Amino acid sequence: MTEAKPARPGLMLLEDALAALLATVQAVPEAEEVATFDADGRVLAQDLVSALDVPGHDNTSMDGYAVRVADLKAAAGGALPVSQRIPAGHFGPALQPGTVARIFTGAPVPSGADAVVMQEDAEVAGEADGQPLVRFRTLPEAGQWIRRQGEDVRRGEVVLTKGTKLGPAELGLAASMGFAHLSVTRRVRVALFSTGDELVMPGDVPPEQMKPGAIYN
Q1: Confidence of residue 31 (pLDDT cuts 50, 70, 90)
Q2: What is the pTM of this model?
């Protein structure tokens, strides 16, 4: 390890100078509100608390069929009718006993269903009374391919803490909680100044009139 060089007479060691400067540093107390997608690189001024569950309801993580496991066991490999179709963003009625529901990724799982079978493990086997019949190649376990309400975030949970530097991941999380604006600390104001008799501001003196030894600032 390289030893620090001793300071020249009358000068302070770099480490001591930095320590002296940092000892006087204070956090910026003022906060301001900015649009979430304008907050990249800013520092959060207060804890961010979720006002909702994520997901907001039990939903499916696969395209497939919402089923009742007991019905599939009772069918013993036989086909079951499709009683409803549930796209993402729509709630379906309770699942009728002895039937399945066609369901798509992100759609709410209907009450009465306790598993989802992905479409690759199912095949259409004709129809009866105007309803498609579906046969399943696997017997799912209860809860299969279901994302439970609040599985990612619970309502009232602190999702980002005060002092967090915000980047794309944090902003995406905040947006998924419904936050359009965020409270962030005010940016630090920085002032720069130069000194010296030789300095001349650009525009004050044309080049041909510059005094010997003068330079533009």
Answers
A1: very high
A2: 0.68
